[in-house]
Sequence to fold (76 residues):
Amino acid sequence: MKARVHVMLKDGVLDPQGEAVRHALGSLGFEGVNGVRQGKVIELDLADGTTEDQIAAMCEKLLANTVIESYRIETL
Fold:
């Protein structure tokens, strides 16, 4: 079983890396980019029978800093 976890900073949390990308895009001539939020994708190769609750526990304990990040689980 495979799962993907999408982790993003919560709304209202400053994203300096996203801002750096937005600035760089403008410097390269890409106009009209008003904002960039950067996140991460984590792919998990899991044993059959792993539940979404178990994946959520992994996110809560290690994969996401839930104080400033949100996550979404996608099972494949």
Remarks:
- The chain has a mean pLDDT of 97.
- The beta strands are 2-9, 40-45, 69-75.
